[in-house]
Structure formats: C-alpha cells, structure tokens
TrEMBL record:
Organism: Adlercreutzia wanghongyangiae
Domain of life according to the entry: Bacteria
InterPro entries: DMSO/NO3_reduct_chaperone (IPR020945), TorD-like_sf (IPR036411)
Entry protein name: Molecular chaperone TorD family protein
C-alpha cells in the first residue's frame, strides 16, 4: 500500500470521527437543556469543544476561534439560572405548542417555511408524515433503535443528527477493522440519508436559528452552519 493511499485512509478515518463528534455536540446543544450543559457553558468546556471539533472538521481556525469565543458570554452565569433561561428559549424556539419560531421537526420546519405564521396545529402530524416515516426506515436500516423508546417524532433534528453521528462512528470503525463490505453499506446509508433528509433542511434550520436567537442558540446556529457545511462537503473524502 502506497504512502499516499495510507495517508488518504488515515484522513478519512479522522474526518469520519470528527463528523461524529460534530453531530454529537450539535445534538447536545439542541436537546432540552440540562444542568450539565449550563455547567459546561459556565466552566468553558463547551467553548473548547466547539473550537476543537471545528478544527478537526477543517474549518478556518480564525473563524472557529471567534465563533467559539461567543459562548464565553455565559462563563460567569449561575448554572441553575442559566438552565432555566435556556429552557424557556428552547421552548420558544423549537417546541412551542402554538407557533415555534424554528421548529426542529423536519416536516414541520419545511411547512413553516412555506406557510410562515401559520400555527403548528395546522401543519403536518408529528409522528405520521413523509419525513418521519422515511427517517424511521433509515434508522431501522442503520440499526438505530431509539425512536419508539423516546416517544420523539423520527424527524426531530436531535434524532437525525444522532443517527448521522452514529453512522459516521460506524464508518470509522469499519475503516479501522478493514471491513470494506460493511463500510460500503454504511457509506451508502450516510449518503442516502444526507440527500434525503439532512440537505433538505438542516443547513437552513441552523441559518434560521442563528438569525432568530441572539443568545446561546444564536451561537449554536452559527456553529451548526459551519459544521454542516463541512460535513456535507466531505463525502468524497470519506468514500475511500
């Protein structure tokens, strides 16, 4: 095996792990806020993770340093009060029963883009819609069995990102073990899911989030735009 081929495989392996880490961090940011998240913001670990993962993905170091530094706004906040503040904003943005500002369900988000200002109850059903059914089928194919356990619609962004992250982890494991057959299967699942779901709405979701919220979630939106741009551009590198 030539040195260039070895280097390409090592690059694919580390990049795949970086994609998995990025998806995991974005999932954490978009889940219902916990005291652990508030403490991470208070202690600076969130800022460090945002920066290091951005570098692993190949984002510009200066841009990532500036973006990560935004999270320092919360470094002196009381964790308990911060958690409550984040929870209120989380509900307003993502899961408000009448009119969420940035719905984090794929089908409802796309509906809101086509019908701005229309109440969520007039939109698609949460659990039974085209995106949710398609996403759940992809989860089954990839061995991702958390949808029913958590009673969360399958097209929720936290599930879609968690699934994508798991597939990138699986791809890196296949690269490490040399299981070329399984790697090809996983790469096909990743590409199909990115084309059928991720590209349809997640970059736009983060762009809209970055413009809708001026605090923590606004920063998350900016990070999401940067991370997803890299992830969706990296597929040729990972097709080793």
């Amino acid at each position: 095996m030539g040195a260039s081929n070895v280097a390409a495989k090592e690059k694919a392996f580390t990049t795949s792990l970086a994609c998995s880490d990025a998806c995991a961090l974005l999932t954490l940011f978009l889940q219902y806020p916990t005291i652990e998240l508030a403490e991470g913001l208070n202690g600076g670990s969130v800022q460090a993770d945002v920066f290091s993962i951005g570098l692993e993905l190949g984002c510009d170091a200066k841009v990532m340093r500036e973006t990560a530094s935004s999270f320092a706004d919360h470094s002196h906040a009381n964790p308990g009060a911060l958690k409550n503040e984040l929870r209120r904003e989380h509900t307003r943005l993502f899961d408000h029963p009448v009119l969420p500002q940035v719905p984090y369900y794929e089908e409802l988000f796309l509906f809101s883009c086509d019908h701005p200002g229309v109440p969520a109850k007039e939109g698609p059903l949460r659990f039974v819609n085209k995106a949710a059914v398609s996403a759940e089928a992809a989860y089954r194919e990839g061995g991702f069995g958390v949808v029913r356990e958590n009673s969360v619609p399958a097209d929720c962004i936290t599930l879609e990102l968690a699934f994508l992250g798991k597939m990138y982890t699986c791809a890196s494991e296949c690269m490490q073990s040399g299981d070329c057959k399984r790697l090809a299967e996983v790469q096909a699942i990743i590409r199909e899911f990115e084309q059928g779901h991720v590209e349809r709405w997640i970059p736009e979701f983060f762009w809209r989030l970055g413009n809708e919220s001026k605090g923590f979630y606004g920063y998350v939106g900016r990070v999401g735009v940067l991370y997803m741009e890299r992830i969706l551009a990296l597929y040729p590198i990972l097709s080793i």
